[in-house]
Amino acid sequence: MTVKGYNKFKDSPDDHDFMTEEHIAGFLRNHKTGIDNFGRHTLAQIVAQYKGCTVVDAACGTCVNWDVFKRVGVDCNYIGIDRTQGMLAEAKKRYGDEITLQEGYVQELPLDDGEVDVVIMRHIVEHLQEGYEDAVREGLRVASKELVLVFFLDPSDDAEDVIQESQPDANGCTHFWNTYSWPKFTEFVAGLGVQMKVGHVATPGAAHADTIVRLIK
Ligand SMILES: C[S@@+](CC[C@H](N)C(=O)[O-])C[C@H]1O[C@@H](n2cnc3c(N)ncnc32)[C@H](O)[C@@H]1O
What we know:
By secondary structure, the protein is α/β, with parallel strands linked by helices. The protein has 6 helices and 7 strands.
């Protein structure tokens, strides 16, 4: 695995690096966040529209999305990219050579311009210290057809983003739960030259509903 390197925040400790193997094995696989999550099935339907496509799941975690795609028979080549080696190791253990795994950052994907058809970024942009702009531009750089963003915190009607950082945990890690301004986001997207389609998918029993934003070239 190679890392081109998104160095901006690389030196900060990250809570994912301190997760136990057991925690990683169950990460986002229970409480209606796993293969039974309706938002993930909506992603499967989106990807299935591009038969035989190559899809990058950026910040893939342990590749639960691939599990869903496989179960519902989506015809695609799946590449999972994540910053955390433990997540990739768990995905490798589960899915072996069915998928391609690479270490990397959503803000600097280890891929060429237009190299893949679809990029997914699910439940990641709210966690980015610097906001979503770098990641969205990067997703659109490597996707020839579309970038799909899945927000777990509904964007607000406020004029400004709320960047919310937790207190440091025992390992000195903080994490971000940002609520983004919808007016600001739509203004940003208007400058990207893409078509935007938005959906809202709730899974009964899940802590969060998904706002799914498709940025189509
Ligand atoms: C909330 S989980 C979402 C996992 C997956 N997208 C899903 O929905 O099942 C966030 C994931 O993003 C990864 N991550 C955090 N910051 C990242 C970054 N800047 N670039 C790539 N991956 C990142 C973490 O290692 C973790 O696996």
